[in-house]
Amino acid sequence: MATTIPPPPSPFPHMKPLLSLSPLSSLSLPPFNPKPPNVSSSPLTQPNPTHHHHSPSPFAPRRLLRLAVDRRDLDLGRAAHAAAVKAQDIEDTRLGNALISMYLKLGRLSDARKAFDALPSPDVASFSSLISAYAKCGRPVEAAGLFCRMRFLGVEPNEFSFVAILTSCIRQLDGRLGSQVHAFAVKTDHCSCVHVSNALLGVYVKCGCASAADQLFGEMVERDVSSWNAVMLGMVEECRYDEVFRLFNLMQMEGYHGDGFSLSTLLTAAAHGFGGAGGEAVHAYALKIGLELDLSVGNALVGFYTQFGCVEDVADVFWRMPIKDVTSWTGMLTGYMEFGMVESAVDIFDQMPERNCVTYNALLAGYCHNGEGARGLDLFRHILENDLEISDFTLTSAINACGMVSDLKTSEQVHAFMIKSGCKSSSWVEAALLDMCAKCGRIEDAEKMFTSWAHEESFPVAWTSLICAHSRCGLHFEALHLFQTGLRRDDPVVMDAFALAMILGLCGTLGFVELGQQLHCVATKSGLLSDVEVGNALFSMYAKCGRLEDATSLFSQMPQHDTVSWNALIMAYLIHRQGDKALDVWDSMNMVGVKPDFITFLLVISACRYTRSNSVDVCHKLFQSMESSYNIIPTSEHYSAMVDVLGYWGSFDEAEQLIKNMPSKPNASVWRALLDSCRLRSNMTLGRQAAQSLLELEPQDPSTYVLISNLYSASGRWHCSEKVRQDMREKGLQKHPVRSWITHHSTMHSFYARDRSHPQSKDIYSALDILILECMKAGYEPDTCFVLHEVEEYQKKNFLFYHSAKLAVVYGLLISGPDQPVRVVKNIHLCGDCHAFMKYVSSVTGREISVRDASGFHNFRAGVCSCGDYWSELGYSSSTSDQSVLQPDGCMTVRETLF
DNA sequence: ATAGGGTTAG
């Protein structure tokens, strides 16, 4: 049997494929071809060999061709080709078309092209079939070139030609060419064909020309289910998800029955929109009409349940599908990744019969989604080494993985690779690169990229990334400045949910309740308020600004709550030191059935410190239930929170026991928690041990240095103390400067210790001096042990009196009305002297003073603080490696009372 | 079917 046929020489060797497309309207129309186009049947199904005038032998080429296609036997097909050549039939157009068809069906586009080139007079069917094939495999240039050549040769396009060329427009998202074809189709009266119109609808929908699609749909004289499906898909593309359901109902009212594509479009709408119930209804309907396991419906169900269901639903649909394609497997992989089941996803990946570029991207993105940056980078390396296909998706995920491992060197390598390989062009990739730089500590590089930003499309993303990077580094004011630059552009950035949530977080951190309220309005007007994450951020903003009532009323209005919402509610009570209420929330959370996460446990355990009565038992129970009931393994953070609570209630034996039983070596935060409790309860013996362990463990930690420094200064060894501090400075351990601030009329007034930069500082200092005298009359005794500098006693007071918190509070008293509370925010903990002072101030002035520090709120009223004077110097979660300890302000967090 | 930025905790 013949195996290969040398391809016949091309009849048009001089003609190159057209590389650039001129608009169709500018093409000169060829002379009218009097031969009527063959429109009665598909161009490629030309059966009935018996009617043919050639040999009816069973070995006739035509019959062989059919057999070859049925058996998917390429060798047989080639044999038929040989037979055709031998029978000198090869110049027959209809036989040639059958040959083209055979090669295309067997996936041999290049052979089909050779057969086409061998035809002396290709007809409309020859052209259409080949154009369609080029369109489907993403080669629009060849498709359009053939279309032009067909016209040049005077072959009139028919419906099939139009559908084919439009398919290529869809593939390359060329709406302009699409509308030119549209005009041409109208001119040649092919628009009445429902298939042509449907293809046109497809082009408009995919190219984002929704109005053109709407208009065409309205003008169509004949519609079928595909027409409706195309418009429904258009609504999905436009994010008008409720419209999809409306259209579906309309279609049914007009007597059409939805097919698998309609249902899968509905499910996509439900998955992307807010249609949990809608999606389940579609599932029920699919069951009823027996389409549940249809390939496209099944795939859409997998996607829907990944968004609005549980992993069991996803797996159930997937495994019952009788026929699965790459999309199905990739969907299942994504499902497992979304539900955090990385190993199951990898398992699916290993089992897949076939993988493509998207599959690899999904795996890579899944690793990123689950915080497995290192595995993501390994996979990326594997993709590169094996020369697998990569796309923008691959690159953005790889960059994302790199930002996740946050390694400067890797980030530079990846960055260099992107530049070298020249794939930096896409705006998505650039936005991802900027974000990576910001995350790997290359904030200057990020800024450089930002200022030379070329792409408008992803500007909001880069903007958000950069703001976020600044606020992560503690550069809050720079972050806000960037925020303003975005709003003041000629083309102001439109905030989306992400940006809004982030800026709200910033408002919360800074205590900017006025800006926060304005953003609340923005959220309400834009509809972004229904976004859970925006709701959560808004809630936290109010809570952190001391507006607990505004926060809780917002909570009750939120359309839905997730774990983060509940955590935020617990945290709100926690920073207001209302432990019992925080624990009540924990009960409600369980009643509602929301799954707690590891943060929930950090919060509720910490809440046991702020309960009215001893809640050591409660916190033991919580701690034990973590693993047994919720399958959450306690981390060292949970241990230090426990130690903090146990120590607070004086259960030092239990605290020691817990530390001894830790599965891993107790880390510094555990010892810090113990140390702080010992300070509070004056447990000297244990405190010394804790300090010793801390010193051994973290000789490099700033707070350890302060500890030693305090040790020296407390015993009057100033030189040693100062030397330690100098060491510390030389090692660059100094972190953010301490400051306190207050907002008034949307302006922030920020103070350092002994700060005289404020324009009204003369007034502030005289007021403070008067206030100090008044307080001293009322019994205030400055506690100079909070001054750690080698200075004379009178100077010590000077250092103490002008701590940033005191300056900010006095300024607040000066500028606000007598009935208003003074709200000050301090970026680290209040020192004991400031704390005592504020109590006197509140009673002497009769004003309410609220100071938010790193541990939460201190609300001073009539000489009493809401913290009950048992405030932690380490914050509510003792895991805080306190960065604030070293500040010139002198508000130290570790006191020397122990020694 | 796959991608960027954030919200709770630090």
Give a topology summary.
Elements: H1 61-70, H2 74-86, H3 93-105, H4 109-117, H5 124-136, H6 140-152, H7 159-171, H8 175-187, H9 194-206, H10 210-219, H11 225-237, H12 241-253, H13 260-272, H14 276-288, H15 295-308, H16 311-320, H17 326-338, H18 342-351, H19 357-369, H20 373-385, H21 392-405, H22 408-420, H23 427-439, H24 443-451, H25 459-472, H26 476-487, H27 497-510, H28 513-526, H29 532-544, H30 548-557, H31 563-575, H32 579-592, H33 598-607, H34 616-630, H35 636-648, H36 652-660, H37 668-681, H38 684-697, H39 702-714, H40 718-730, E1 740-744, E2 747-751, H41 761-777, H42 793-801, H43 804-815, E3 822-826, H44 832-845, E4 849-853, E5 856-861, E6 864-865
Parallel strand pairs: 3-4
Antiparallel strand pairs: 1-2, 1-3, 4-5, 5-6
Helix pairs in contact: 1-2, 1-3, 2-3, 3-4, 3-5, 4-5, 5-6, 5-7, 6-7, 7-8, 7-9, 8-9, 9-10, 9-11, 10-11, 11-12, 11-13, 12-13, 13-14, 13-15, 14-15, 15-16, 15-17, 16-17, 17-18, 17-19, 18-19, 19-20, 19-21, 20-21, 21-22, 21-23, 23-24, 23-25, 24-25, 25-26, 25-27, 27-28, 27-29, 28-29, ...
The protein binds one DNA strand of 10 nucleotides through α15, α17, α19, α21 and α23.
Main attributes?
elongated; about 60% helix; six-stranded mixed sheet; disordered C terminus; DNA-binding; DYW_dom; mainly alpha
- State the major sheet: 6 strands, mixed
How many β-strand runs? Answer: 6
Radius of gyration: 36 Å
Query: What is the 3D shape?
Result: elongated
Derived from helix and strand composition plus strand pairing, the structural class reads mainly alpha
End-to-end CA span: 99 Å
Average pLDDT confidence is: 81
The low-confidence runs, each spanning 5 or more residues with pLDDT under 50, are 1-56, 710-715, 874-899
Number of helices: 44
**Strand coverage percent:** under 5%
Spatial order of the strands forming the largest sheet: 2-1-3-4-5-6
Query: What percent of residues adopt helix (DSSP H or I)?
Result: 55-70%
